[in-house]
Amino acid sequence: MSSPPQAAPALLAPPSEPVPDRKRRRPRFRGPRSLKAQLAVAALAMLLVPLAAPSPYVVRICTLILLYSVLAVALNIVVGLAGLLDLGFIAFFGVGAYTYALLASPLHSLHVSFWLVLPLGAGVAVLLGFFVGLPALRTHGDYLAIVTLGFGEIVAVLLINLDRPVNITNGPQGVLSIDQPHLGSYTIGSKDVYAGAFGIQAQTQFYLLFAVYAVVVIFCCLRLPTSRLGRAWRAMRESEVAASSCGVSIVRAKLSAFMFSAGIAGGAGVVTAAWYGSVFPDSFLFSESIRVLAMVVLGGMGSVWGCVLGAAALVVIPELLRQFEQYRLLVFGLVLVLMMLFRPQGLLGGKAVVRRSRTPNGITSALGGLRRGGGR
């Protein structure tokens, strides 16, 4: 008598107990409270500088740190978030500076208010960023770097040679006697202001103006990585094909990256022209673009606070080595080489590198990049 047939064992037997869902880790420094805390600490540190600074020289160095921090954070949008190499970034800074210089100086007998030119200079830089972003739609990698490098050189040559046959930029002589900003009847930076025992020096007034602009820029850039646009940039950085297949508009993402970055640089140029009181074409050469790019790489691409730290390092280190005039650039270059050898991801860029290395072939899924928040 034959035994009854036995059922074949199931290939995919259900688990005896339901597997609990993996708890999603809450990323650090991404909540709104944490963002407010970071900005509060940064604003407090900026306010303490005028009180602790022993001399106007220190205040000027701190102002330069704020200026280059803004430029590095702006370039980080293109290089760190969108993954596009821009070697002509300083041209947007120069366009903003010359916009204010031409509209608020005796060169053309125009004296437009600083507060009107500030958004105008940023808008002109945004427009140029749009035209620079157009070639980026068809070029990648080294070819894009060459395109942006050519744009930066074109702007520098125009600033030097637009003094004939009609004098527009005053050529190599630059623009002098630029108007200072006004608050009502008071001119910022014209004289020291005292209220009883407390006072604000003329140099410190421009420092506070830069501090306000830097806080606004840093706040916006801290929110960008977790926004829809920021996630699209990060997905495009890892793989344009994967990002496009997930519904990301590559055209819109590239153009918005260049335009957003250019607008910040243009506004910084307007504030800088008002601070210096003069602009010259030599201040907007290719070497300045490389300097800002070095700040982004040193601090860590994709990290806002890393860019601030990189800017502070590359402003302070040359000043500390000023007494070694003959060996200053040698020591400065050696520090950068050692940094790239032992910490290639930058000072605060470790988390982004680890996140990439955990994925096959170093490419993060575009869909996952759109769903996850960005590091700050």
Number of helices: 14
Structural class: mainly alpha
Biggest pleated-sheet summary: 2 strands, antiparallel
> Which shape, going by the Cα principal axes?
globular
Rg, Cα atoms, Å: 25 Å
Which series of helices and strands comes N to C?
HHHEEHHEEEEHHHHHHHHH
Give the termini separation: 75 Å
- Tell me the helix content: 55-70%
Q: Give the averaged pLDDT, no decimals.
A: 82
Strand order of the largest sheet: 1-2
Tell me the strand percentage band.
Answer: under 5%
Count of beta strands: 6
Give the low-confidence spans. Answer: 8-13, 26-32, 351-376
Report on this model:
The chain has 376 residues and is mainly alpha-helical. It contains 14 helices and six strands. It has helices at residues 32-52, 56-81, 90-103, 114-136, 141-161, 202-223, 228-238, 240-245, 250-276, 286-299, 304-320, 328-342, 350-357, 366-371; strands spanning 104-105, 110-111, 182-183, 186-187, 193-195, 198-200. The strands form three sheets. Strands 1-2 form a two-stranded antiparallel ribbon. Strands 3-4 form a two-stranded antiparallel ribbon. A hairpin with a 2-residue loop joins β3 (182-183) and β4. α3 (90-103) packs parallel to α5 and α3 crosses α9 (250-276). The longest helix has 27 residues, at 250-276. Residues 8-13, 26-32 and 351-376 have low confidence and may be disordered.
